[in-house]
């Protein structure tokens, strides 16, 4: 199994969310529901993960649409709790125009070429009416660059490979046109790379989204000895202390002017 695929099979990635993640997930689900066309009978969520976005979204949709979650990670799907299919975005195991709406939330920025091109074609093929996509909004990829301390490989902490803005979606899917677009969500804090790395090592900043090095597999973030020291010093209060430290530091850091997410609905022409 490749380092990339093994990363998404980690047990700790799925089935848990902190308070901040839950708040942001609810915002995302609300905006997705607004983008949905009326009278949707069926929905496919490509890259559904453990369903943390799909579950609140389904509860907001009128009627009782047929919903399927698809992900390549068996570990993620084990937490989904509803109908699911294991598969990849570049080879969707469904017939043409199988679902009224196909949604893809924060997956396109992760896909390398040519998978990115193939996934776009597959989203368009399977959607009968609309494709709804959310991505980071005008992201500055260089601010999330990490350097592996073992092999010196440089990579994006969130495994993002490309930048999106509203104009990116003009002509993105063959046979589809942009029907609606909305910027929404929180405003990302701007940490200088060296300061972020040190705060991560001290356990002040979360590193739950920081993956292993894609070249050698070395884990990024706080040293194990640092984590053990915090736990030994504070016991059960370690998590609450780190959380309060995070918000204290966060309040002092300037934020981007733009909302973090961009949501776009593309309708079949």
What do you see in this structure?
The chain is of the alpha/beta class and 269 residues long. It has a single domain (3-191, 256-268), classed as Vaccinia Virus protein VP39 (Rossmann fold, 3-Layer(aba) Sandwich). It contains eight helices and nine strands. The strands form two sheets. The chain has a seven-stranded mixed beta sheet with strand order 3-2-1-4-5-9-8. Strands 6-7 form a two-stranded antiparallel ribbon. Helix 2 (19-35) packs across helix 3 (54-60). Mean pLDDT is 81; it is low at 222-236.
What is the CATH topology? Rossmann fold
**How many independent structural domains?**
1
- Which percent range fits the helix content? 25-40%
In whole angstroms, how far apart are the ends?
40 Å
User: What is the name of the CATH superfamily?
Assistant: Vaccinia Virus protein VP39
Radius of gyration: 19 Å
The pLDDT mean sits at: 81
Number of beta-strand segments: 9
Structural class label: alpha/beta
What order do the helices and strands follow? HHEHEHEEHEEEEHHHE
